[in-house]
Amino acid sequence: MTPLDQAHAAMETAPDDDTARLTFYDRLAASELFLLLEEEPPGETIKPRIFPVDGAQFALVFDREDRLTAFAEGPAPYAALSGRALADMLAGQGIGLGVNLGVAPSAILIEAASVTWLADTLAARPDEIEERAESFGAPAGLPEPLLTALDMRLAATQGLARIAYLVGVIYAGGRKGHMIGFIDPVPGAEPALARTVSDALTFSGVEAGVLDVAFFRASDPAAARLARAGLRFDLPEPPKVVPVAEAPGSDPAKPPKLR
């Protein structure tokens, strides 16, 4: 059972539970997916294999390479890319997603309108503000779905920072809230980390929720205060780099193009 299988099972068990449905889409967006192609791409342009179902069109994706191979009954051309990148690429194209069809318990058809909704939801960007934190304390009262979403999302931020702390915070002026403080982020990774937290909040089902994000160096006195008060998340270290031929979609800065 993959994380996508588990999220799909929870959604099927509770079809009226909005949080379970959001969790499934969150897992889909955060997963690496293998998109079945018509042919090996000659360059950076890819051509998904499209299947008609009841007058609609669907591209097929799988959350494991062996599942794609099982569906195709042998090796087949594919592009590996995140669910986020795939939704952004297909949005507005009138193409839905067939996920793990025929090879896994999470098999599902997602219509084109839902793919566009997912892309639009993921396109939201957090606001930037400047406030001075007066004090940190233990986080309190946060719903369990949000903590689960944060844990899953932060586990996918390999190499972007060393540690994150979730704390309660009181700002100058008296505003109270909660904050995720990242320690030693890689230069330039701040927007991606902020977007990760924003996605976790969006897909947790918490209405009108706010979760602030801040960045610190380990040498900053505030880092020690975060460590004393906060809930710690150890972020995974980046995998060791082994030179390989680059596959289409493997570089998030250069997503493949449809044709």
Description:
The protein has 259 residues and is of the alpha+beta class. It has 2 domains: 3-123, Uncharacterised protein PF11572, DUF3234 (Trna Endonuclease, Chain: A, domain 1, 3-Layer(aba) Sandwich); 133-234, Alpha-Beta Plaits, CATH 3.30.70. It is 33% helix and 25% strand. The protein is built from 8 helices and 13 strands. The chain has helices at residues 3-13, 18-30, 65-72, 83-90, 112-122, 144-154, 190-203, 221-229; strands spanning 32-36, 45-46, 50-53, 56-62, 78-82, 95-99, 108-110, 133-137, 163-171, 176-183, 212-216, 231-234, 257-258. The strands form 3 sheets. Strands 1, 3, 4, 5, 6 and 7 form a 6-stranded mixed β-sheet that branches. Strands 8, 9, 10, 11 and 12 form a 5-stranded mixed β-sheet that branches. Helix 1 runs antiparallel to helix 2 (18-30). The longest helix is centred in the last third of the chain and has 14 residues, at 190-203. The chain is elongated. The mean pLDDT is 88.
